[in-house]
Amino acid sequence: MATDDLTFIPDPDADSISSDVASFGGLLVSTQIPTRPDGSLELGGIVEQSECTLQALKAALEKAGSSMDRVMHLTIYLTDLADRAAFNEVYQRFFAKPWPVRAAVGVQLATPGMRVEVTAIAAKG
After folding, report:
1. Phi then psi dihedrals of residue 42, to 5 deg
2. Cβ(49)–Cβ(34) under 8 Å?
3. Residue 1 domain-assigned?
4. What angle do CA 109, 111, 117 make, to 5 degrees?
5. Contacts with 77 (C-beta within 8 Å, 6 or more apart), sequence order
6. What is the rounded CA–CA span in Å between residue 62 and residue 18?
7. pLDDT tens, residue order, the chain (125 aa)
8. Which CATH number fits the domain that encloses residue 81?
């Protein structure tokens, strides 16, 4: 695969098999889980996990030269769709109108106890 026009910013975890952010032209793509700044997972309640996940997204985007107000699309993966209302309360502290386009889906995540993961598409700048 030719990647001359693509940029990948590595995940801070040296053992990770995923980039933290991928960039193409003016678009950035990032997937985040409830990772604390020290690299450990937050496996508490949905509010704590949502805050940690969105804070990780914020940090990754800022490191790549963007910000939360440049997010155009967010996919929210929840292990229990009943957690959607709690996630939305946290979400509204990180985002404002005009809201990003978004979707929420129910899934089984790879790590036991992890309740949320997000994938975002953002613009640089």
Report:
1. -90, 115
2. yes
3. no
4. 50
5. 104, 105, 107, 109, 116, 117, 118, 119
6. 18
7. 456 777 777 777 777 666 667 777 788 888 999 999 998 999 999 999 999 999 999 999 999 999 999 999 999 999 999 999 999 999 999 999 999 999 999 999 999 999 999 999 999 88
8. 3.30.1330.40
